[in-house]
Amino acid sequence: MTKPTMDDVARRAGVSRALVSLALRDSPKVSDASRVAVRAAADELGYRPNLIARHLASKQTRTFGLVINDLHNPYFPGVADGVRRAADAAGYRMLIQSAFLDDVVERSALDTFIDFRVDGIILTGARLPAAAIEAAARSVPIVVVSRPMRSVNVDTLNNDDRLGAELATGHLVELGHRHICHIDGGDGAGAAQRRAGYEATMRRHGLEPWVVSGAFTEASGVAAAERALGSGRPLTAIFAGNDVSALGALDVIEESGRSVPHDISLVGYDNTFVAALRHVSLTTVEQGRERLGELAVETLINRIEGGRTKAIHHVIPPTLVVRHTTAPPP
Amino acid sequence: MTKPTMDDVARRAGVSRALVSLALRDSPKVSDASRVAVRAAADELGYRPNLIARHLASKQTRTFGLVINDLHNPYFPGVADGVRRAADAAGYRMLIQSAFLDDVVERSALDTFIDFRVDGIILTGARLPAAAIEAAARSVPIVVVSRPMRSVNVDTLNNDDRLGAELATGHLVELGHRHICHIDGGDGAGAAQRRAGYEATMRRHGLEPWVVSGAFTEASGVAAAERALGSGRPLTAIFAGNDVSALGALDVIEESGRSVPHDISLVGYDNTFVAALRHVSLTTVEQGRERLGELAVETLINRIEGGRTKAIHHVIPPTLVVRHTTAPPP
DNA sequence: CTGAAAGCGCTAACAT
DNA sequence: ATGTTAGCGCTTTCAG
Lengths: 330, 330
Prior knowledge:
The relative contact order of chain A is 0.13. Chain A has three domains: 44 residues, Orthogonal Bundle (434 Repressor (Amino-terminal Domain)); 132 residues, Rossmann fold, CATH 3.40.50; 127 residues, Response regulator (Rossmann fold), CATH 3.40.50. Chain A is elongated and about 85 Å long. Helix content of chain A is 45%, strand content 15%. In chain A, the strands form three sheets. Chain A has a six-stranded parallel beta sheet with strand order 2-1-3-4-5-11, sandwiched between helices. A four-stranded parallel beta sheet of chain A has the order 7-6-8-9. Chain A has a two-stranded antiparallel sheet with strand order 10-12. By secondary structure, chain A is of the alpha/beta class. In chain A, helix 1 packs across helix 2, helix 1 packs across helix 3 and helix 2 crosses helix 3. The structure holds a DNA duplex.
């Protein structure tokens, strides 16, 4: 169980340890003969370099840490796809941690990556206070994805949440809806912007905003929809803060005997795979999550390798995806 | 950006480096005065211990690596929940990597964890050859979850896939179905056992098994259902290898103008949150995924700390969750 | 092209 | 209770 070290390989190959190090990393200053001998010895021994030691000596890990706010939210794996593809192409590893929707866990996930001295950290959907992120960013490059925040030293990457909400709300208004309720994302990442976009659109059309507070979870969608439906207030459409809360609302609407979109139209946000299921067919907003993931890596790399110090704030335009949960009001 | 080291803290607190090390880890053999002084110095400096260095010196990382076969499959986050809870309670960190359904990526995820010298690895839904896992298990404790395999040196934890498939198929038979097609999981983890359970149940009832090959993805469910429906063969029920492939099948069935469960009954496997959505309400099989995650950690810990060397193979009984996608045949 | 030697930041005996 | 001294396994000058 005790693993062979570089010394073992060196001894077996009849060369010095330093040469093994060079040979294994394909340095040009190693003769072919040595290279072959070293490789052979390493293979025979089943040698695997100890990254812990390598990193301690070289001061870099070539690893990015990805903190996902909630592994259960199908939005995030899409971001992870983009991150992985780009990281892979650039020769970086990616390690993931989930915050499990808990701020304390999120904080410790961030600390763990810092303590592991990863070369860069991607925070997605983070709910940590901006100050905490700023502080952490002083010791490692951090890029915050899908969580709008203004900062001079941490990079951010977002879809335009406000615009997305405007598209969603505008779509409902155009269909003829006047009683549109917004189940918001509470203090979730981007929730405030989506709420603002909703409110602005409503006002622009002379309609009164009606926000029921929620969170980015299915359970909160259930609770919020129950409140909205139970209020007795006229209601023909709901714009939920994200897809999973929309799904919660969908359940409640149907349970109440109403049908979607016949009685009530419903819009989500994120365009997750669940929204795309024909059986659900939820009208929603696409953020471009994979692209955000890729951009996150690029942003990190040009800070690390390019030495950039000024923060970048990139916002990409979302698009409305119209499916079958929206129709003119009854 | 250059971080303070333990030496900096020691100097500032006016003590030796070793004492800082002890104080920061709450060793009882440190005076209160020193402890306070060290903590203060560390805080003022914003000191964070370098885990890389700590691990190199202590030969352990107190970290488990979790390799998830497919981050997009909502089954896995449930396992991760269980792992995290148990790991947390035992004082271990958890790092995640996704294989993104790709065997090569899965292999490199495993290698990365080995190279990082994590204390234990949990493979869930892995499709790697058993031999590769066995080999890796020689250098680090590995427990394989949701992937049946017989082995003398690697621990496994599974629900009884065969039994689960028998429950699912038996349920359909009891409802009166005779033309039941199984969309299998191809070479996915546990797919063979589920297929066997289906076939055995069919034969036991004098029915002819009909397996259409698939995989554990939505896209494969779509393709397989199209083939089944297009075959012209009588068909009143489908038992899909897992929930996401069932969802793919559901889309195709409805697209063909048939309704579920009126024309065709449908059963999945995994009881993911999507199956539970009232709007989907998929009859499925619950594996007990969180429990599997917790057990995985316990298994790893009693091997690491308890010094166990004989492999454990634990199988837990699945349960059928009947919802609204199953009904008697038309 | 190869080897020797000096660390990387920390832990773990061993002293005191 | 606290300090000293070796490493952990690797990379990286610096000589040869």
